[in-house]
Design brief:
It comes from Streptomyces antimicrobicus. GO terms for molecular function: DNA ligase (ATP) activity. 27% of the residues lie in helices and 24% in strands. The chain is built from 6 helices and 16 strands.
């Protein structure tokens, strides 16, 4: 019988709690749920006003993975959704993870959380810039950190304060809070930054996605600023061999990184860091900290 849990007055069926989701470490679905409950206070402000896309991996990262934007079958009536019109689906809606019950319901599906750079209501207006630094082997997150330091200074020259987090996979994400501005303008600016980074660091950076260009270099992916694109949310677990987290990090950690292990955080480590340091990305949720796109 599936146990029913009450979360802030909502009845949620939490199933298969002993099921191992990450075989390499024995991390179970119950531990996935416990992790999300632990980090909810930090995670929710980063997703609650944004339509969420889910990468589901109910049988673990070695099982079937499927990306969904539409509310999954069986979504409770109390889960908030928002219109997200798409050319192929003019009446499309997506889930908004607005509270702890919704977070726990979604976590029970075993998901990564992905969000756009705009808030619910207007895909044409963004309030964040994101740059996804993706290393092409044999480059690693170490090389990403070198690029991140350059980009941090370049953004600062335009009055924008950048924050870093691990992707939870191989690379690094940089983000800056913006005064609301057209998503198309953010996309154009991000592309210019990527091109400038390649010109300044030609042996280290590539701004085009072409795989033949990427071995040993860091691809500065600017495309995730497009209204239709999404990025892994802060504190989301990833569908990797171990329960890695897309974890905010300090610039001191970025500058000091010498090995990939130095910026790899599992669920327990990420939760402990949050308890010790608080949410390092909290300024990104504060409109008072927004910068103006040049």
């Amino acid at each position: 019988m599936t146990p029913i849990t009450m979360v802030e007055g909502r009845r949620i069926a939490l199933s298969n709690l002993d099921k191992v989701i990450y075989p390499e470490t024995g991390f179970t679905k119950g531990e996935v749920l416990h992790y999300y409950a632990t980090v909810a206070g930090a995670l929710l402000p980063h997703v609650q006003d944004r339509p969420v896309s889910f990468l589901r991996y109910p049988d673990g990262p070695d099982g079937q993975l499927f990306f969904t934007k539409n509310p999954p079958p069986g979504t409770p009536a109390w889960v908030m959704t928002t219109p997200v019109p798409r050319s192929e689906e003019p009446a499309a809606r997506q889930v908004v993870v607005a509270d702890l019950p919704t977070l726990m319901w979604a976590a029970n599906l075993v998901v990564e959380f992905h969000v756009p750079q705009w808030t619910a209501g207007d895909p044409a207006v963004a309030d964040r810039l994101v740059l996804d630094l993706d290393p092409g082997p044999p480059a690693t997150v170490v090389e990403c950190c070198r690029v991140a330091m350059w980009l941090r200074e370049r953004l600062a020259a335009d009055g924008l304060e950048a924050y870093a987090k691990t992707s939870g996979s191989k690379g690094l994400h940089l983000s800056a809070r913006l005064e609301p501005v057209a998503s198309s303008d953010v996309s154009a600016y991000a592309k210019e930054l990527a091109q400038e980074a390649e010109a300044a660091l030609p042996d280290l950076v590539v701004h085009r996605m072409t795989k033949a260009l990427r071995p040993g270099k860091v691809f500065v992916d600017h495309s995730q600023n497009a209204a239709a694109k999404t990025t892994a949310a802060p504190y989301t677990l990833r569908a990797r061999s171990r329960p890695t987290v897309s974890a905010p990090v300090t610039w001191t950690e970025v500058k000091a990184c010498r090995t990939p292990a130095g910026l790899t955080f599992l669920a327990d480590e990420a939760a402990a860091r949050l308890g010790r340091d608080g949410d390092l990305w909290a300024p990104l949720t504060d409109p008072e900290r927004a910068g103006r796109l040049p």
